[in-house]
Design brief:
Layout lengths: L2 H19 L8 H26 L9 H9 L3 H8 L3 H12 L5 H10 L15 H50 L6
Helix pairs in contact: 1-7, 4-5
Length: 185
């Protein structure tokens, strides 16, 4: 291992330490646990709704809630467009934008209000609870830290070997110089 390899290894070690010390959510703090518990309580209704959708013949991926609610309530497109202050064709464009996942949340919220509805927006874990996700994330962080520790140990061993090799070389050079009669410390 030469000096450049040693310097590169040191840089890698510093970068790993920097990355690990800057990881957000590295620990499952009690304050975050309370926040997760409250969010899980709120998201319980969302998870129940998600389970009920297939039974009702609906899918979250369809993305045509505006049209379905408008048609289910029997509200004519012309009336919803009037409430929104747009043309009927603009309403159809909004419905199409929702279906293709290109609608803005502010537009979706306005359209929901025009239908006398409320927009409910949530990010719900696919499986389990937020606490479960937090535990999985904690394991990922711990695995990354352990991997970094192993890399650091390996780098330390390499550095130690390099330093040991250098010390042995200096000692051998000093010995040879002394044999030649040259004074060295």
């Amino acid at each position: 291992m030469d000096l450049q390899d040693l310097q590169q290894a040191t840089k890698v070690k510093r970068e790993l330490v920097r990355q690990l010390s800057c990881k957000p959510g590295a620990r499952l703090s009690p304050a975050r646990a309370e926040e997760r518990r409250k969010l899980d309580d709120v998201l319980l209704a969302m998870r129940a709704a998600r389970r009920a959708l297939p039974e009702a013949g609906c899918s979250l991926e369809q993305g045509n809630w505006l049209r379905r609610v408008r048609q289910a309530t029997g509200t004519p497109a012309k009336e919803v467009a009037r409430r929104l202050g747009v043309t009927k064709w603009e309403l159809f464009r909004l419905e199409k934008a929702e279906q293709t996942s290109r609608i803005q949340l502010s537009s979706l919220r306005r359209a929901a209000l025009a239908l006398d509805c409320e927009l409910v927006y949530a990010v719900v874990p696919r499986a389990g609870s937020l606490e479960d996700l937090a535990k999985v994330q904690q394991k990922v962080v711990e695995a990354a830290r352990e991997s970094a520790r192993l890399k650091n140990r390996k780098i330390d061993e390499q550095v130690g070997e390099a330093l040991g090799w250098e010390e042995v070389m200096h000692k051998a050079v000093r010995t040879e110089l002394r044999k030649m009669g040259i004074r060295v410390r």
